[in-house]
Amino acid sequence: MAVDTEPHRSGRATSAGELKIKNVARAFSGIKALDGVNFTADAGKITGLIGPNGAGKTTLFNAVAGDLSVDSGEIHLDDTRIDSKPTYEVFHQGLVRTFQIPRPFARMTVLENAMFVPASQQGEKFWNSWLRPAKVAAQEKANLEKARAIVEFCGLSKVEKQLAGSISGGQQKLVELARALMADPKTILLDEPGAGVNPALLDVIVEKIVELNKRGITFLIIEHNIDFIMSLCDKVVVMAAGRVITEGAPDDVIANPAVIEAYLGGAPL
Ligand SMILES: Nc1ncnc2c1ncn2[C@@H]1O[C@H](COP(=O)(O)OP(=O)(O)O)[C@@H](O)[C@H]1O
Ligand SMILES: [Mg+2]
Description:
Layout lengths: L5 H4 L9 E10 L2 E11 L4 E5 L6 H8 L7 E6 L2 E2 L5 H6 L2 E3 L12 H6 L10 H6 L1 H21 L15 H14 L4 E5 L7 H16 L3 E5 L3 H7 L2 E6 L2 E6 L1 H6 L1 H8 L5
Parallel strand pairs: 3-8, 3-9, 6-7, 7-8
Antiparallel strand pairs: 1-2, 1-4, 4-5, 9-10
The site of adenosine-5'-diphosphate has 11 residues, from strand 2 and helix 2.
């Protein structure tokens, strides 16, 4: 069964999930990890975020996803201002992120990991489970079916009963994607989905991103693998030392001398 995200998107504008970063700054002990970051991840598109280590990419993700407050600036998801909102509020606005290093619940199975995504489930409310057991049971069944469909979509059915701590790093990245999809997001932030993933599995991840994007999900992706960025992204934003140094079409960005300089001090990419 394929994942059907359509019903969840039907109430939304055709193009949703635009993420606007406006002059965002954040310092750690005086070090400006984010020093006035401006860019937009366009609705319905795949935007790449690249830059050398320490550029501030992960810090930006933390700020967007509600894991970190900002010192100044604004972050908007469509019409909602989300900067300095707690993670669960950002999550309920339809934005989810994955981590550079996957963080599955290692002692839960792959399927349980997918099912254990916070949602406004009736079963979580004490009185509802007492008063309306049939409704709760129906909801749990629906949740299981949804998790199964998403796990299958992510190519994880064969390992769905294995502990998430026992599968490969690449498969754990797919578990993170599955968990993200359980939230019916309009925007997904992926932090280095290709890191430590074997080439065959990387192809699978690329394919899934393309398919999800075709269904309307907006992506912002941090990735060092240039082939990955070139083949996938509509636009690439380049950060260095807490600032955006350029943005544009992948071909133009990769050929930009400022980008080459930022990465390698002048050597070609
Ligand atoms: N929680 C933190 N405390 C102190 N410094 C941090 C913290 N998070 C990030 N930094 C610093 O912010 C800068 C940007 O880091 P990061 O966002 O991880 O870069 P990137 O993901 O682009 O490699 C680095 O200098 C890093 O050491
Ligand atoms: Mg990082």
